[in-house]
Amino acid sequence: MMAETKEKVLYGVDTTFEAIAKKATPKFKTTPGRLLFAGFMAGAFIAFGFLLAIIASTGYSPKLFPDKGNISAFKVLLGAVFPVGLIAVILAGADLWTGNVQFLSSAKAKGYADFKCVLYNWFGSYGGNFIGSIFLALLAVSLTGLFGHVGEPNYFGQVAVGIATGKVSKDLLALFFLGIGCNWLVNVAIWQSARVQDGAGKILAIWFPIFAFVAIGFEHAIANMWVIPTGIFLSDYSITWTQFFHNLIPVTFGNAVGGFLFVAFYYWYLSHPELSTERIIKEIVDFFIVFMAFWAVATLIPAGIGIALDKALGKGAMYIVPLVLSLYYIVGAFLLYKKTKRD
Question: pTM for the full model?
Fold first, then answer.
């Protein structure tokens, strides 16, 4: 009698790391139009998850309903529904920058991508995420009134404004570390889903870490690209673009460190016992070099533009800033693509 062969439930660490590294290849070989569109979709998917999470949890908001509100129930419901966004990103297919930290770092470590490839993908996906998030913010406010109207938020809108206000009120160091915790868990979700073979297993693998990061209160740069602009529009510019960048700059840095150091680097190190100390140090240094270049062109320069427009135009910057920055990201992605192809 032949012995029954057990079906393998999880891919091995080595196999998973290799698969993630190879999956990054089309992400930096694609055209800027496709990269930006894929980034747009990812930003929109995350925003859909956040939008639905607010709708699901608003009834338990202790600020809106002091008598029956429950902060624990509010945070648990917010976290329980939010994973819809990343599930769509992974299963439907889209380019989320926070996930691309792992994908492109893994590809770079394996030698499949160089600095220019990483920078191009990160910039294009981050910019596309911003554009998609802004579109959903406009959809929730100006285009549909789902969360109310400019200066007139409904119950859902009041929760969104409250969340946005809390995010722009934290100090820079706290935002940095909250960003680390967030993308640590986001990339654990992506890693777990890559190890699982069936669709239902992938959904569960994604759901638990994302539920955890949202319920805990960690900071996700792309999610914040939706909720803070939504707060900007609903508050009639009581929350400003300057405050938006106060959050986005350190959170982006923290997200990058969390996704690279605690997931991509960890599993690369774990699956390659032959690595020398020099090689390990080189990979860490390489990551920070390419990240600093990305951080400068994708976050710091847009922040400078947005803050300058905010100071010059005041409330008039409410819609001008996202328009100008969207154009900046589109043009920048095409320029980086040309440089990548030329070199």
Answer: 0.96
